[in-house]
Amino acid sequence: MSEPVLAVSGLRAYYRTSAFGVEREVRAVDDIDLTIEANEIYGLAGESSSGKTTLIKTIANAIQPPLQVFAGSVVFNFHGQRVDIHAAAPRELSAIRWKHLSYIMQGSMNVLNPVRRVRHSFVDFAFRHIGQPMPAFLATVRSHLQRLHLAPDVLEAFPHQLSGGMRQRVTIALATVCRPEFIIADEPTTALDVVVQKGVLAMIHEIQRELGSSILFVTHDMSVHANLADRLGIMYAGRLVEEGRTADVFRAPRHPYTAHLIASLPRLGDSAPKQGLEGAPPNLAQPPPGCRFHPRCPRATEICRRETPPMAWLADGHRAACFHPAAEPAT
Amino acid sequence: MSAPLLEVSDVVRTYAGGVFSRRKTIAVDGVSLRLEAGRPEIFTIVGESGSGKTTLARMILGMVPTSAGTIRFQGTDLATIRGRRARLAFMKQVQPIFQNPFEAFNPMKRVDRYLFVTARRMAGLSADAEIAEATDRALKSVGLSLAEISGRFPHELSGGQLQRVAIARALISKPALLVADEPVSMIDASLRASIVNLLRDLRDRLGVAIIYITHDLATAYYISDRILIMRQGSAVESGDARSVLDNPQHPYSQLLKRSVLSPDVPAVAGARLRPEPEVS
């Protein structure tokens, strides 16, 4: 088996602040292990304040105080070139960024320079990585846009002249023009309307299959994961609580939180009553002891209140952090 | 026969394009709808961004005047409401619930203060005991209690709890109609189902009619009695929610329905991800 493109092990990243003598520590990412293989879309799901944004910040080494990494490592493997992203020198990092590791962000307006034509954004981000003279570079960009079914005219437009869906397509083109091995996509379709969203997801899927890149796709929308992700990780209160192939997780969720999340999804054509989950996600400055889900969990027992459940393999490629995981259903 | 609870007839709302611009934006273009009195229902307005659904809601709340057409609430034309007293009487009956509860509350103020002020202004109560009782009753109907939220600031509550408080605030004056603009789109997935269930429960238990505005067809199917699909300011299709969504007639409604991603995993990853052709 080939080496994974991304290996995260034992990662702990906390926000630590000290104001007026009051120490506060928010454990936003706590003891996370995960690997992402070449040519796969890894979906990361979780609600707000579950730590998924902190996790991708740590993976991308976009760490600013008060966020600090306390333990663990994030190692990329770009075709045999191993990079420990927290140990890499700034020069090495800037050579990697965008060429091997790129991003698709939620707010496309914040990526594209609002006062310059789209062409300048491509030059700013990608020109130095592609290493071609300007006319050849622009020809590369044009053919890349055409491959993504975008008219090359968008290069001469200002961002505000494009619709939201079009801008998001342009940022996807921008993120893939250097053919990176790894792409981090942070809620890229959350702000879009449903009709446009489907088209943008189709585009991400198509370009991923063509380039063979790996994508870490973060969104709270389970329907998007169901349709796009090859594997799925579920975060709750700063921890990864379940991980497996998307079809397995949806068919047979093992962790009670995942099971509830999937059972409560509204579906068109289904008006059977759905049960809401009681309680609220915990405050990460004072997480509950033991399993962080136990105050809301219908299956909680004494051990859940005392000890933290470790991530355990329950089936081939399927693991969950729970003392009382659901049994595998008979097929 | 009594007057309908709400009657919206051919309302139009245009916005001027700017000081020197002659171009006008037509946000809502001739929409009609009618809610009967004595038959509380959840009426859903579905549309994408820019379809005019929020502008329509603002006109129903009396926050934005209509450019043409009339809105009658219990037989009274909203355009004829003048003066503080008449305005207050209308606001008691029609209450809003907003999208983002974190923006709806002042972060520097305790949330119970909002409820007390509403009880004093909207319900016209003056004695402290009465105010506390009305507040507690409203909070109990959303599954909270005054003891739980007393003295808490907005940041101390979760999004779901805060949205419940926002709904309780709207209920204090015992309204006949709630206008909820995307009430669950900012709420976490695990709490969303309970807020949606709450709306359904309020309709059944308190007999409040609810105008539910959303872009999410799946929750619309789950709770609505009737539905209106809007596109670029006009209503394209309306009727009984289940039959419209099970069997949409207009090409745009069909496109919307096809675009909803099903949470069932397809056999081949990405199999359902085909871009839809535009409907003109």
Which key phrases capture this entry?
heterodimer; A: alpha/beta; eight-stranded mixed beta sheet; B: 280 residues; four-stranded antiparallel beta sheet; 11 helices; 10 strands
Helices and strands in order:
The complex is a heterodimer of chains A (331) and B (280).
Chain A lengths: L5 E14 L2 E15 L4 E5 L6 H8 L7 E12 L2 E4 L5 H7 L4 E4 L3 H4 L6 H13 L3 H14 L16 H13 L5 E5 L7 H18 L2 E5 L3 H7 L2 E6 L2 E7 H6 L4 H8 L38 H5 L5 E4 L2 E3 L11
Parallel strand pairs in A: 3-8, 3-9, 6-7, 7-8
Antiparallel strand pairs in A: 1-2, 1-4, 4-5, 9-10, 10-12, 11-12
Chain B lengths: L5 E11 L7 E12 L6 E5 L6 H8 L7 E6 L2 E2 L5 H11 E4 L3 H4 L6 H11 L6 H14 L4 H4 L9 H13 L5 E5 L7 H18 L2 E6 L2 H7 L2 E6 L2 E7 H6 L4 H9 L21
Parallel strand pairs in B: 3-8, 3-9, 6-7, 7-8
Antiparallel strand pairs in B: 1-2, 1-4, 4-5, 9-10
Helix pairs in contact in B: 4-5, 4-7, 5-7, 7-8
In CATH, the topology of the largest domain in chain A is named: Rossmann fold
Largest interchain contact: A-B, 48 and 46 residues
Structural domain tally of chain A: 2
Number of helices of chain B: 11
Quick overview of this protein structure:
Chain A has 11 helices and 12 strands. Chain A has 331 residues and is α/β, with parallel strands linked by helices. In chain B, the strands form 2 sheets. Chain B has a 6-stranded mixed beta sheet with strand order 6-7-8-3-9-10, with helices on both faces.
